[in-house]
Amino acid sequence: MSLPIALDHETDLSLQEQIYGFIRDKVLSGTYPSGIRLPSTRDLALDLRVSRTTVLLAYEWLMSEGYIETRKGLGTFVCRVINEAIGAATHAPLPRKPVMSEPRPSVVVPREVPTLINMDSARAAIDFWYGRPDSRQFPLKAWKRLVMQKLATTNPGLAEYCGQAGDPDLREAISQHISTTRGFLAGPKRIVITAGAQEALNIISRLLIQQSTVVAIENPGYGAAAVLFRSYGAKLHPIPVDRDGISVEALAGVEGKIVYTTPSHQFPTGAVMTLERRQALLGWAKAANAYIIEDDYDSEIIYDRPPIAALAALDQNERVIYIGSFSKAIGAGLRLGFLALPSELVSPAIAVKSMTSYGQPWLEQTVLASLIQEGTFRSHLRRIRTLYRLRRDTLVNELRRAFGETVQISGEDSGLHLVWTLPPEFPTADELSTRAHKIGVGLYTPARAGAIEMGAPAGPERRLLMGYSALTPSEITVAVKKIASLVAMRPSAVKVPRGAVAV
């Protein structure tokens, strides 16, 4: 413990008196409660840059008046007797003086908060929350090995800033990784490391969005992005999504110069943007001199189709701002993602980054860089693809077994979730979700899972967004059986005469 004593060498009070008075006042006010340990005379003298004799005399003065005491072999402490004698007055709050100054600035509270995680305190035992990688599959052995390797020798990364744009080795590793897996070479100088995709969206918003800036966004789409854009003053222009992705035709006449899209696995529908649609979107961006924000949140988890190159891979005019993340492939707890930016936005983005976090933690960055460079990350991706495919297959097969081969499923060929559209005779998605939670199964409508849909709904919600990656096949099997039992309870399922009251 060091004491923040500001000694005044110009005053008439001696240094000894100033030290005595400071400690006495702190004891009497209760700031230094009984039993608290004070620094030794040697340490305090060094801290204050005075002679030890000066501190000794001040301590002796305090001891003579009963404020402090020494305990042999332990140190110097505030006396218990003092606080007992002072009693409640020691800790009584000082009376407030009337404040005549101007009121404090009002607090700006966001009107909307993005839904990024399931914060339900009564989380279901078998939870189909979307986008959760299985924590049991984290490459722990390799991660621990690399952490110990990095900490085996003194590294300046522990004590110095490693650069606002991120660790150079990680930027290089990501540049090489996306060149092979996503089909485009941005180069390390165009990569900026972020605290996941959400910070990447914040940086982009800070750069491009002002009050009333028009942003075209998928409808339905990712709610967290919509909330964020609105918080910067954007005016959202919803663009419909079909089985081929965002409608480029609907962009005709849009005033905005920014469009946000999730082309490789549209959220929440799971649609994959076709090559024709991608080329049309890039053509629109070139003609409108606009930017496309490509959120590639889970594109590396694919099952039944060959990898599709990123939209950025087709971009010949640097119109695409690419967002990548390791949250779905490894884990959101790492808080590591990145931007691959058009050249003209790199310096402004780094400037914005420096005003927010001034860079990510060094250790996680350097470990991830090595994980990618040595090939362990690539092996990890192959392993979890196989594992998650099995879980996807289990969910699809169990739904078909329980509800027939015509069960309507979409978005199942990649990613960590699929969409189940309930038939008309089933309970609504909201009703089935509520009932399922009561028996320990977490089901979520797109809205509850963080999707946003602008405009009047066509009717009751009939879609459920089901994340399966964190569940074992046995858990999925049990859950679908429980869901089937709930559907069987529905009057329409047992053909009760029309007009009967629903359970």
Walk me through the structure:
This protein is α/β, with parallel strands linked by helices. It folds into three domains: 15-91, Arc Repressor Mutant, subunit A (Orthogonal Bundle), CATH 1.10.10.10; 138-377, Type I PLP-dependent aspartate aminotransferase-like (Major domain) (Aspartate Aminotransferase, domain 2), CATH 3.40.640.10; 379-494, Aspartate Aminotransferase, domain 1 (Alpha-Beta Complex). It has 15 helices and 18 strands. It has helices at residues 15-29, 41-48, 52-64, 80-86, 88-91, 140-151, 168-181, 196-208, 223-231, 275-288, 343-354, 362-373, 376-403, 429-438, 473-488, and strands at residues 37-38, 68-71, 75-78, 126-127, 191-194, 214-219, 221-222, 235-242, 245-246, 258-261, 291-295, 320-325, 337-340, 408-410, 417-421, 441-442, 451-452, 463-467. The strands form five sheets. It has an eight-stranded mixed sheet, sandwiched between helices. A three-stranded antiparallel sheet has the order 1-3-2. The protein is elongated, with a radius of gyration of 31 Å. The N and C termini lie far apart (66 Å). Residues 87-95 and 491-503 have low confidence and may be disordered.
Descriptors:
single chain; about 500 residues; alpha/beta; Arc Repressor Mutant, subunit A; Aspartate Aminotransferase, domain 2; Aspartate Aminotransferase, domain 1; 3 domains; eight-stranded mixed β-sheet; 15 helices; 18 strands; about 35% helix; elongated
